[in-house]
Amino acid sequence: MLNPVHLVLGEDEFLAERATKAIIAQLSPAAERTTLRAGDVTEGELAMATSPSLFAEERIVLIKNTELAGKEPLEILLRACVDPAPGMTLIIEHSGGGRQKAYVKKFEKIAEVHRANPLRDRDRHSWLTQEFRRYGQRPTPDTVAALLESVGSDLRELASAVSQLVADTDGEVDVNAVRNYYTGVAEVAGFDIAEQAIAGRADRALASTRRALQLGTSPVAIAAALAHKVGDIAKLYGVRGNPDQLARTVGMHPFVVKKTMNVARQWSGDAVSQAVIIVAELESTVKGNGGEPEYAVEEAVRRIAQLA
Asked: Which segments constitute the DNA polymerase III delta N-terminal domain (predicted)?
């Protein structure tokens, strides 16, 4: 049987909204709903909303922004939670802060608690994996990392991205699908070439470069991808430590840090310096500052792969 009193506790608006929707989804669609904002509601309005009904019909009372309420409204709400009216479900959204913070513990003793705390950077990867699993998908770690790189850290945007990707790819979501969807075919080709180059796969990197150029991929896109990947190597060359902790320092996702650190181990300090110079020269060339862009791209890919 569903608890009649729920406390949605935490500062993340999206997680709080999702938790509240999940509670309501378990109740009758015919239930009467009342939404009150604790900072605006009067004591009389709150008392009326939470008082017993003559007919004991099913009711849902959602109290939002409870951290903004004064002491008197909170006392009324607390009494309603201790002895909820028949047929009533109370949902209290509270950030966990506010002037009357001490009331949080009182509500926690009575209510079923649903946490909505902001996620730490290192937790977003597992959260996003679970988001895919809501749709029956089992994404690879690099697919999850690619989506985080493409979309960012906002949970609402990430959840929307997963929903769109699953729908638009018939559930066949992989790294290429993510990059095609968010950056376009040209950038996808450049990204793959750059990964092969920094890993030292010269033959594959050059073959991919020629094919991409024949298919119309812009030298600018390949140059940008090379610069991005070489930049990652430069950040993590010679670095040791916990990827989760390093991720905060370098502004990258822990999975990407771990993956890049593995590649960076095969680089020397001199090779990193040379690669940085190569991509700087390449970017200048592809932007029209002299030279043949397509030849310059191939030459840069070859030299970077050899340095690796």
From this structure: 6-95
pLDDT at 55 over 60: yes
Q: What is the mean pLDDT of residues 55-81?
A: 88
Count other C-beta atoms under 10 Å from residue 306's C-beta. Answer: 12
Q: What tokens does 118 get? A: 């902001």
CA dihedral for 115, 116, 118, 123, sign (positive or negative) = positive
How far is it, in rounded angstroms, from Cα 111 to Cα 46?
Answer: 18
pLDDT digits (tens, 9 = 90+) for 112-158: 999 999 998 778 889 999 999 999 999 998 899 888 877 777 898 88
**Residue 2 to residue 19: CA distance in whole angstroms:** 14
> Please, what's the b/e burial string for 153-176 (b: 16 or more CB within 10 A of its CB; e: otherwise)?
eebeebbebbeebbeebeeebebb
Q: Distance between CA atoms of 114 and 19, rounded to whole angstroms?
A: 7
Contact (CB, 8 A) for 142 and 111? no
CA dihedral 224, 230, 233, 238 (to 10 degrees): -150
